[in-house]
Structure formats: structure tokens, C-alpha cells
Amino acid sequence: MLPLYTIFFCQVIYPMQKRPLFNQQRKRLPWIRGTALIAAGAVVAGLVTLQVAEQSGGEPTPPAANGSDNEIPLSIQSSTAPAQGGLADGAPPAPSKAQAMTVSLESDPGFHIPGQQDALKAIETPPSDEATAEPESHVVERTIEVSSGDTLSTIFERAGLGYSDVMQVLDVGEQAKRLERIRPGETLVLKLEDDEFAGLQYDLDADSKLNIFREQGDQLVAEIKDLPSQTAMVAAGGMVRGSLYQSAVATGIPPAKVMELAEIFGWKVDFVRDVRNGDEFKLIYEIRERNGERLGTGDIIAAEYRNGDRTIQAVRYTSPDGTSGYYEPDGSSLERGFLRYPVEFSRISSNFNPARLHPIHNTVRPHNGVDLAAPTGTPIRASATGRVTFAGWKHGYGRVVQIRHDETYETRYAHMSGFKGNLSRGESVEKGDVIGYVGMTGAATGPHLHYELRVHGKPYDPTKVALPEANPIPSEHREDFLAETRSAMDQLARVRIDSDTRPIRLAQNESTPSD
Predict the structure, then answer these.
(1) Mean pLDDT value of segment 494-509
(2) What is the pTM of this model?
């Protein structure tokens, strides 16, 4: 630095002092001399700064002690630039703001990073020619939706894998055998490493998934992992316009919950004959979610149906012995030993009528049951617990199942398209078990279920006959019942139906009275 200043002074400043402009005897333009001296000083300072920068090699200046601790300046540019000077022609541009921010976050001063300055120097130092990077293997994941006609073999074939890969997967264990029964609409996550099979993932159901992967030694391993989920409760409701089913589904209530609601109140309200426009319904039920995605629904916790001037409420209660059921707020049971209707149907196509004119034979023949119109294949369930006394073909009834429930009650299901599994005489069934499917076998003009109920061998209208009720809450459980159901009933009371019949709201402005 000293030789540079000496040369500048000898060649610039000193000769200028010898000129008339700098002569002390000339007083007319003193400001010119002052301006020249200031300019000369600025040039000297600039040259000194430039020389210091060149000697330092462009290294970043460490932050001042009183600077912001959460700012760590990084000169990433120097890792791609030449060792001296600025960016060379064609060199990559400086990192974007997002990249710089990522580095700053990773260098958060809240964490102590030993040897941080050495790490920064390593970033700035270009890799040497002797350093040879090992080749990286890349695992690629492909999500495949199963189409109609797909098998594991066809899916592997489209992915460029061979039949030997399929056999290796299926030979892993019993867990992998489920892959032989994949269905359209399901998804597989196939993992490939350098175009070779590396593993797969497959959701077995809403709560578990199958994971197949390679351990060290190239051995395939299968494991089933439980998928965590969260349970929450939601409220829903609306007003009937037309039918309960259509009105409830229009509000967003899942169809399965609508049918469950009808079953809960089935012995209090005849949803075929008693429903009228303006009836109100509301319910609270469980939902299961994972990462904000709806997986399904759980039980109805509480429900209410307002039918004209009547209001019927239900609440779910599980007794200390583990038995669950639906009860009215006073503890009376809403259940019967029988289902009101053993099938999900759209309408009653023919009522109970001992003097009906037969639509095919055109003669007066007693119709000893009700015909429930439903699409072919709709599941038919046992109305109550009992034992199968007949399962087969019976003349105009077509395929028939008869169930004896006790010494008093017997039910008959006719015109079925088929039976469930190997259903046969003598087999025990529980209330709600699927026993067959809707069809139109025998003397039938369309798909429906002919359903009969006999009491001591005599046919009765199954939609009107009085059936035995389930027992109410026993006295020893009554205190527990009231304590366990109070919260659900309080929440149900806060649900309000808006006048446009579809949305519902919680009456948040209503406060719970304090004790």
C-alpha cells in the first residue's frame, strides 16, 4: 500500500504543487486548489480499498459482534465461480432468494454448529479432480390405480417387471396373498430402483396397509402397518321435502347414516306411511379422519325426529357389561327383537291383503306379506335372531328362506336371486345378518322382496303387528346411563334447523346454565 501512495504523490500531487494553480502567492482561486486536493484524496482511498480487497481473495467479512444473530451470510456463488475474480462467462447465476432462505433456516443460530467456519469454507472450495462421487441409485414410486380386469401380473408387466417378480412377492407370506384379490378402484404404490422391483405399498382397508420391501441381502419382507386415524363428532339435520332419504342425502348425510336413522326410529315412526313434508330431523354421529381426509363414519350418538306434533329422541348407550343400544332419554328402549324392514327398499309395491287380485294369475289370492321393491342384488337381512328352517325353491315364491325365531314368530323371504354363502337348513342367524339378495324368481313381475311375518302360524301385516320390545335400562344402570348420555343430549339440543331445510347450525349463542 505504501509504494502505491508514494508513486501517486511523486507523479501527481507534487508536480501539481509546482504549477501556478498551487502557488501560494496566487489568491484569486483558492477554491480550485481545495477541490483538487479533495479529489486526489478520494482517488487514493479508492486505490487503497481495491488493493485490500484483492489481497483478501474475496472472502466474506464475518458479521459484526453486534449484528443480527439470525443472519448468516453465505457466498454460495464462489462454489461455482473461479477462484479469483467474479463470475466467469457462462457460469451459473447466483442462488435465488428461496435458496438463500433455506440455507439461512438450516443455519439457525438457535442451534450450535461445531466447526461452522470450516463448513463454510468447504462449501466455497470447488471439489478436486481426484474426488470421485459414488453413483446414486434412485427409487422411483409409481401410484397405479387398479382397472377392471387387472391382476398383479398385468400391473407388473406394464411396469416392465417379470413374472418372477410377481412370484417373489406372493411367496413373501400370508400377508401378501391379499394381492391376489385386488379390486378395481384400489391403488398400489410400486417402487422401482434402477428399473428393478424394490417394493410396494397397498392399503388393505381404512386402518391398515401392506408394505413389502427389500432388507439387506436382497430379501423381500412383508409387514402390515396400522394406519392411525382420528375420531370426531359432527352434527347434521334438515327438513323433509318428499322423503326422508332424499332430504337427508341432500344435506350431505351419508346414505348409510340415513338408513341407520330410520332403523333407530323404525318402531316409533313408519317412514313409509307416517312421514310428511315439514318433518325435521337432526343427528350427531362419529366420523373418522386421517390427515384431514374423511375415512368413514361411525355410530350415531344421538338423534331426533319431529313428526307433526310428536318429537322422538334417541341416544346411544353402552352399559358397563359392554352391551350397546339406543334408548329414549327416560331409558325406554327404542329397539325391538325384529327389524321393521329387512331390506333397503324404494317403495312398497304391494301391501298385505288377504283378498288381493293376483297380478299374474288374475285371480283373488291372499297376499300374506308385503312386497318391498328394490334393485336386484340388494342384500336381505334376517329380521331377528333365529334358525333357518327352509332354504330352497318353493313354487311361485321362487327362492325362499324361512326362519323360526322362537315358538311364536316365523319370517319368510321370497323371490330371492340367491342365498348368502352356503346358507342351509338348521343354520343359526343373528338379527341383521345377510341371508340372500333381492331378485324376481318364481311368479314375480319385477325385482322385489316378498316378506311375511307369522305369529303362531298365522300371517300378519309385518308393518303393523305389535312386536315385543327390548328391555329398558335396568335400575342398577340408570345413574350411569344419565351421566353417560347427558353431554350428547345437550349437544343435540343445541342443533338448530335453518328455514331453507338443508343447512344446520349450532346455537353457539346459547350458554349452558351454571349450577
Answers:
(1) 57
(2) 0.54
Question: Is residue 41 packed enough to be buried (19+ CB in 10 Å), middle (13-18) or exposed (0-12)?
Answer: exposed
Length of the chain in residues, anyone? 515
What is the CB-side half-sphere exposure of residue 168 using CA atoms within 13 A?
A: 18
Q: How far apart are CA 462 and CA 345, in angstroms?
A: 15
CB 261 within 8 A of CB 268: no
Q: Which of 13-22, 74-83, 396-405, 482-491 has the lowest mean pLDDT?
A: 74-83
Describe the strand order of the beta sheet including 220-226 as a list of residue ranges. 139-145, 187-193, 196-203, 208-214, 220-226
Taking Cα atoms as reference points, which of 440, 432, 388 lies closest to residue 414?
440
Which residues, 6+ apart, have CB-to-CB distance to 461 below 8 Å?
351, 352, 370, 453
Neighbours of 336 (CB within 10 A): 17
pLDDT (0 to 100) of residue 291:
80
Joined grid coordinates for residue 7: 508513486
Q: Judging by beta carbons within 10 Å of its beta carbon (0-12, 13-18, 19+), is residue 125 exposed, middle or buried?
A: exposed
- Name the burial class of residue 209, with classes exposed (0-12), middle (13-18) and buried (19+) by CB atoms within 10 angstroms of its CB: middle
pLDDT at position 311 is 95
What is the average pLDDT across 100-116?
Answer: 31
pLDDT at 319 > cutoff 80: yes
| H/E stretch holding 8 | helix 2-8
Mean pLDDT, residues 365-389 taken together? 93
- Structural domains of the chain, ranges and CATH numbers in brackets: 2-44 (no CATH), 139-226 (3.10.450.350), 231-335+471-515 (3.10.450.350), 347-460 (2.70.70.10)
Distance of alpha carbon 502 from alpha carbon 496, whole angstroms: 11
